[in-house]
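Summary for the lay section of the report: proteins are chains of building blocks that fold into shapes. Here we show the chain for Polysaccharide biosynthesis protein and then a coded description of the shape we predicted for it.
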Amino acid sequence: MKARHLLTPLLAASLCWLAACTETGGLPLESAAALPASDGVYRVGPGDVLRINTYMETDLSNEFTVLPNGKLAFPLTGEVDVQGLTTEQIRALLEQRLAGGGLVRNARVAVNVVQFRPFYILGEVAKPGRYPFEANMTLQSAVAIAGGYTVRANSRQLILHRDGDSTNRRVPIEARSQFVVRPGDIITVPKRYF
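The coded shape description reads as follows.
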């Protein structure tokens, strides 16, 4: 009879651990205070749409979407790896490829992001899914856009995965209005178990 009472807390702890691993995608979970400071420079990723203008070359001026593998299919140069680069770095890379290959003399390129990749909100919200990025959106606003919490939601914390990070961050309720959503973020609202 005594062993039976010991199994109940162990089973409950095991279920909580399994649920946490499921909600975090198996990645380690850290406090949101550990979020690295942003350098304020936007880095391109899959799903971003870039407007590329090549001076005096209308065939090389258009909008291009960064592919899921982080590459850009640009005419004459083939696929160019742009994931994690700034628009200025992409500009320099394209100019180098065009001029270096003798494809365009005095190549001058301008690169701008015209559409940012979406962010995702999953878990216990009314409408989980993919949403278009909007500048200066807080985590609190993101939950509202997704229809708010369900009755099963653990509204005391959110789990935030930043694009390119190897960990997830636990964001407590009091810090939600301080964190700004970035393109590619994955926000998970966990389930309440007790």
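Put simply, here is one thing we learned. The two ends are 24 Å apart (CA to CA).
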